[in-house]
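Renewal narrative, Specific Aim 1. Our central claim is that a sequence can be written position by position from structural information alone. The example that follows is taken directly from our test logs and has not been curated for this report. It begins with the structure tokens describing the chain, in the order in which they were read.
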């Protein structure tokens, strides 16, 4: 198709700029909600393409939005993530940003001929901050019919079965006492936190296949010679559906309350957020896979039992048809997301080659969604059907 060719050659022409921006973001990793440099570079890149960029949207300093095309057709959003982790860009979000901006460069080259609207959305804080959830709640995605993005990994998939999460913070309050002189006067918040981990491990057998629970102790006491009066821990419960993860979280809360009772302390539990599971839209994923294959790379559907993480794109997929394909920037087994060695993969020539290729698949899929009413109708029908189940 002529439009696909125009899009792909515009993306090829944009390569140098895209790699430079992605590399500059990689060199200056910023944690969730602090991605000022990254958001600025991407906004500048979009402005240079002739787009009008709104910055600091929805009350989020590091979110942005630009839209272009014809208002009369359907609207498709392409997401850029750009936050890093404490060990740098170990999730490769600089490549997500570069791929999204490149896709936008390709689509904007069609200009007014575009039979619908494209929204380029900068979504901060994927790593635990749920930026997309805030954008969704605050109306920044109003009028968007479908959304897409792609994430680097060590495997190429057109779908990703991300788990739903519940993030819990638990604080135990006991009573301080001299640990040798008068331990009988104290009640140990450390004993409570240890009991909680033990109880959660005992409960683990009873969770459904594919569930995950992992926790850390963030405060284990105040001094070795004082009975700990205050301890804190965090758990992340993950399950296949948002509904099921609620049950898992309830079980963790029971464990904490039981431990508090057993140790004469008090437990205070806060649910500090969570992501929904990813509902992969197969109508969109199959079109994406076909484009990927036309570029020489197979992107099959991921097996449903693939070990996986979680993403705030899950919440988006509960609000509209959405895809979150993954693209390989390393050999399988040579380092994947969140590992130190993935930081180097995210700044490699293989990574940038994949970023440009994936930008083309994303852009062609977005173009098809706004130009082919049958594809958008199929994506929407599938979304409606799977929401009910
Ligand atoms: Zn990550
Ligand atoms: Zn990530």
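The sequence written for that structure reads:
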């Amino acid at each position: 198709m002529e439009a696909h060719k125009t899009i792909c050659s515009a993306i090829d022409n944009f390569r140098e700029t895209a790699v430079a921006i992605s590399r500059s973001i990689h060199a200056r990793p910023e944690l969730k909600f602090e991605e000022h440099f990254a958001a600025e570079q991407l906004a500048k890149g979009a402005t240079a393409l002739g787009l009008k960029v709104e910055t600091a949207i929805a009350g989020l300093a590091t979110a942005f939005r630009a839209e272009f095309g014809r208002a009369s057709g359907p609207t498709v959003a392409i997401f850029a993530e750009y936050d890093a982790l404490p060990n740098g860009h170990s999730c490769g979000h600089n490549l997500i940003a570069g791929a999204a901006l490149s896709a936008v460069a390709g689509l904007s080259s069609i200009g007014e001929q575009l039979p619908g609207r494209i929204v380029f959305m900068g979504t901060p804080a994927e790593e635990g901050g749920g930026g997309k959830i805030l954008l969704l709640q605050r109306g920044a995605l109003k009028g968007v019919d479908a959304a897409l993005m792609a994430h680097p990994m060590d495997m190429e998939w057109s779908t990703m079965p991300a788990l739903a999460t519940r993030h819990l913070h638990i604080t135990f309050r006991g009573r301080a006492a001299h640990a040798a002189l008068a331990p009988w006067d104290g009640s140990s918040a450390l004993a409570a936190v240890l009991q909680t981990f033990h109880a959660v491990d005992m409960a683990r057998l009873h969770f459904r296949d594919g569930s995950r629970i992992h926790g850390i102790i963030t405060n284990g006491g105040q001094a070795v010679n004082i009975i700990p009066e205050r301890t804190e821990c965090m758990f992340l419960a993950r399950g296949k559906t948002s509904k099921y993860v609620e049950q898992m979280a309830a079980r963790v809360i029971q464990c904490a309350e039981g431990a508090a009772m057993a140790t004469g302390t008090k437990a205070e539990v806060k649910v500090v957020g969570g992501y929904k599971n990813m509902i992969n839209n197969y109508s969109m994923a199959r079109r994406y896979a076909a484009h990927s294959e036309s570029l020489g790379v197979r992107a099959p559907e991921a097996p449903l039992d693939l070990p996986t993480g979680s993403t705030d794109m899950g919440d988006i997929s509960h609000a509209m048809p959405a895809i979150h394909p993954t693209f390989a920037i390393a050999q399988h087994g040579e380092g994947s997301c969140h590992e130190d060695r993935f930081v180097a993969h995210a700044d490699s020539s293989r990574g940038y080659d994949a970023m440009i290729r994936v930008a083309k698949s994303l852009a062609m899929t977005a173009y098809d969604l706004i130009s082919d009413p049958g594809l958008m109708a199929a994506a929407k029908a599938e979304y409606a059907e799977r929401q009910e189940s």
